[in-house]
Design brief:
Elements (H helix, E strand, L loop, with lengths): L8 H28 L5 H23 L7 E3 L1 H16 L4 H24 L3 H4 L4 H23 L8 H6 L6 H20 L5 H16 L26 H10 L6 H5 L2 H26 L5 H17 L5 E3 L1 H9 L6 H17 L8 H15 L11 H19 L2 H22 L3 E6 L7 E2 L2 H10 L3 E10 L4 H7 L1 H6 L2 E12 L1 H15 L4 E5 L11 H7 L9 E4 L2 H16 L22 H8 L3 E5 L4 E3 L7 E7 L2 E5 L7 E6 L4 E2 L1 H6 L6 E4 L3 E7 H10 L1 H30 L2
Parallel strand pairs: 4-13, 5-6, 6-7, 7-8
Antiparallel strand pairs: 1-2, 3-5, 9-16, 10-15, 11-14, 11-16, 12-13, 12-15
Helix pairs in contact: 1-2, 1-3, 1-9, 1-14, 1-15, 1-16, 2-13, 2-15, 3-4, 3-6, 3-12, 4-12, 4-13, 6-16, 6-17, 6-18, 8-9, 8-16, 9-16, 12-13, 17-18, 19-24, 27-28
Length: 733
């Protein structure tokens, strides 16, 4: 994809410049937050690290990424994770120089992990992180930022924590509080009234102005490197940037593997959070611009940017929402705007590095506190309105509290664990039975005799049909077994329609084995039908059942491709077991068909001279779609299956017809080719009457022809009524 386009350059230039003005002050604040925890002079280094982070990530991510208008820069999750890590190890009396180096390694490893995420295709998965976990984590990060910045806002010495700061108001510094309040007020006013100036820039200018006004009442504020400002980068009291940066690489020689291994998990957590933050921004960007981003490519680009940033002394970051929105609203069109944002940060570093020393830390703290407050998901309180969503609210609170009181790393683990527990709980609470029907409520499509229907009405309770849906796993398998307990005591045949099943695990397969064994003890059968050949996971369910030993040879379990086949099989078993002796079919004569019952012998004799007799073996195709020009078939003996063919998928079984039934009536009535396929389900004998032959008969036997058509219409009406009831049962109408 081409980066530079002359027709969009002006729009991209102003968009990238405006985005830099938003990203840069926040990045400086994030950098100061991280490195100030190491020691006083490192705060100045943090400011430069923030600027370098904007430059490196902006340039590299836009060059390698493919998402138009996305702005990448140091972000709040990076500040929260790295500052928490620094605080933890400084509290353990680890040398500041070593902590300083460890932060660089974490940032480098996080970028490397992001590249791995993208290379193996995890980009599509990371953006599906459960919302309560992301919401709770971001809320926790917001609370953490507020807690860390509060002592700075109040002007307290390094090392004073949030609770200590609130308990000792006597040491609060009015100079810092005034600057902080002024910064917040300026930012709120700017957001409402100053549409052309980024609110963060206005807040920084306003806070700095109030600082120098306050110097009229406290001349100490004009002393260089005083505790209320960032301080000089170089000089006798400052920290030499180049020496510090080169010194980090010298320490590599003395860094042991045991020390490096403890950085892996913090780096992995940081990589996941930065990836989620980026992809969340990309998803929102897609919805606003009707575009589509490549998640994996973007992760590789972001990881590369973070690696470069770490190597040159910058802090890590991600695709940021605020700067991206400013970029869009300023007219940017392509990813060149991100490149310009990074380039302008380099210019800002070269031109304004000397002015960074006089930025009030209280202004930066105030800006970060506003950012932290806005990261808190205040709308989640609405989840308490219903019982179903209240558990999601509990996850959000648990993650946020863990992030605030334990650690951000622990919060990520707690959130994922609770989300998994909640999902399993929801699956267990949902019924896996979509519908349950007794054998007296369901019928196959076979057209049966009056005697057979009477048997099924009397003995239909010998089988039950269960339509399953959802996930059959260890959480729901016992639920299914419990719901089948009553039927397992009284039924011989259990039909399970698995068309809507999404997943099956080994526990569920074991429960099906138990059900099969119980039915086998009473000479019964478990009938499985419509097994998905491609579950959402890509697995073939029938193959899986074979692997776990459920579908063994000669096992009392049957598998059917069609639900109607399973019902028909169960009905045939019931009919066969109910008849004292099975009748052997004999060939019907023409007079024994319902269509000709009551006709005169001479009329039947004339009709019989017009009909053709045909024989078919089991499995033979009687006719296919498009064959014939108007024939009706009468079944003298045997069974046929009527199939509706489709060019792009398997044929649908419409009905099964036995002795004394007919088929092909629509072709006969219309004089058109057949629209179905018909297969002989057993050895079959047929009478065939062509339309031409019937028309010859009707010339001399108008009453006989009328009675035939009347009988034909009556049977078709009965079939239509049966079809309507089947559709009603299928679609719950």
């Amino acid at each position: 994809m081409q980066l530079f386009k002359s027709n969009t350059f002006i729009d991209d230039f102003w968009g990238g410049t405006a985005a830099m003005l938003v990203a840069l002050p926040a990045a400086i604040a994030f950098g100061v937050t991280i490195y100030a925890t190491i020691g006083g002079h490192y705060a100045a280094y943090g400011a430069i690290a923030g600027i370098l982070g904007v430059a490196a990530i902006g340039l590299v991510a836009s060059l390698l990424g493919g998402t138009n208008r996305l702005i990448s820069a140091p972000s709040a999750p990076a500040a929260a994770v790295l500052s928490a890590f620094a605080l933890e190890y400084i509290a353990q009396d680890v040398a500041p120089d070593l902590v300083f180096y460890m932060l660089m390694v974490i940032a480098f490893l996080a970028g490397l992990f992001q590249i791995i995420f993208g290379a193996v295709g995890l980009g599509r998965l990371i953006k599906y992180m459960p919302f309560p976990v992301v919401s709770g984590y971001l809320s926790g990060v917001g609370l953490y930022i507020i807690a860390v910045q509060t002592p700075i806002f109040l002007g307290l010495p390094q090392g004073v924590h949030f609770y200590e700061a609130l308990q000792i108001p006597t040491i609060w510094q009015w100079q810092s509080i005034v600057v902080g309040i002024g910064t917040i007020a300026t930012m709120m006013i700017a957001e409402r009234y100053l549409k052309l100036i980024p609110a963060v820039i206005a807040a920084l200018v306003g806070g700095s102005s109030i600082y120098f006004i306050s110097a009229m009442f406290d001349p100490q504020l004009l002393v260089a490197n005083n505790p209320f400002v960032i301080g000089e980068l170089g000089g006798n009291d400052g920290i030499n940037f180049l020496q510090t940066l080169s010194g980090r690489f010298d320490m590599l020689q003395n860094f042991r593997w045991s020390e490096l291994s403890i950085l892996f998990f913090p780096a992995l957590t940081l990589a996941a959070l930065l990836s989620i933050d980026t992809l969340k921004t990309c998803v929102i960007l897609d919805s606003m611009t009707h575009s589509f981003h490549d998640s994996n490519r973007e992760l590789i680009a972001q990881g590369s940017g973070n690696i470069v940033s770490a190597l040159i002394g910058g802090m890590p970051g991600s695709g940021t929402m605020g700067a991206t929105m400013v970029n869009i609203s300023s007219g940017a069109q392509t990813r060149l705007s991100g490149f310009i944002e990074g380039s302008m940060a380099v210019i800002a570093f070269l031109l304004f590095a000397t002015f960074i020393a006089w930025i009030p830390v209280a202004s930066l703290a105030a800006i970060l506190m506003i950012i932290g407050f806005r990261m808190i998901d205040k709308h989640s309180i609405k989840l308490l309105r219903t019982r179903k969503t209240s558990l999601d609210f509990i996850i959000i609170i648990a993650v946020a509290v863990t992030a605030l009181f334990v650690s951000l790393i622990a919060a990520a683990g707690v959130g994922l664990l609770l989300a998994i527990v909640l999902y399993i709980g929801q699956q267990i609470g949902a019924s896996v039975i979509y519908r349950h029907q007794d054998g007296t409520e369901v019928r196959s499509r076979i057209i049966r005799s009056k005697e057979e229907n009477n048997i099924l009405n009397e003995n239909g309770k010998a089988f039950s049909l269960y339509e399953l849906h959802g996930s059959l796993f260890f959480g729901t398998a016992n639920q299914l077994y419990s719901m089948l307990q009553e039927d397992l005591r009284h039924k011989k045949y259990i039909i399970m329609d698995m068309k809507r099943v999404q997943t099956v695990d080994l526990t569920a397969a074991h429960i099906l084995l138990q059900i099969k064994d119980i039915l086998h003890d009473k000479q019964g059968y478990l009938l499985l039908c419509r097994l998905p050949h491609k579950l959402p996971s890509g697995d073939d369910l029938e193959s899986y059942f074979n692997q776990v030993g459920l579908l063994k040879h000669l096992s009392p379990i049957k598998v059917f491709d069609d639900l109607d086949d399973a019902v028909e099989w169960a009905e045939n078993k019931i009919i066969k077991n109910s008849l004292i002796e099975e009748k052997k079919e004999r060939l019907l004569s023409l007079s024994e068909f319902d269509l000709f019952r009551g006709r005169k012998e001479e009329t039947l004799a004339e009709i019989e001279s017009l009909v053709e007799s045909r024989s078919y073996k089991k499995g033979d195709t009687i006719y296919s779609e498009g064959d014939g020009t108007g024939e009706i078939f009468l079944i003298r003996r045997g069974v046929v299956r009527i199939m509706l063919p489709f060019s792009d998928r398997k044929s649908v079984h419409l009905s099964t017809l036995g002795q004394n039934n007919f088929f092909g009536e629509f072709s006969f009535l219309e004089g058109a080719p057949h629209y179905t396929d018909v297969i002989a389900a057993s050895d079959t004998e047929l009478y065939v009457i062509s339309r031409e032959a019937f028309e010859l008969f009707s010339i001399h036997h108008k009453k006989g022809a009328y009675l035939f058509m009347q009988s034909l219409a009556t049977v078709l009406a009965e079939r239509l009524k049966l079809t309507r009831s089947e559709l009603g049962a299928e679609y719950d109408v």
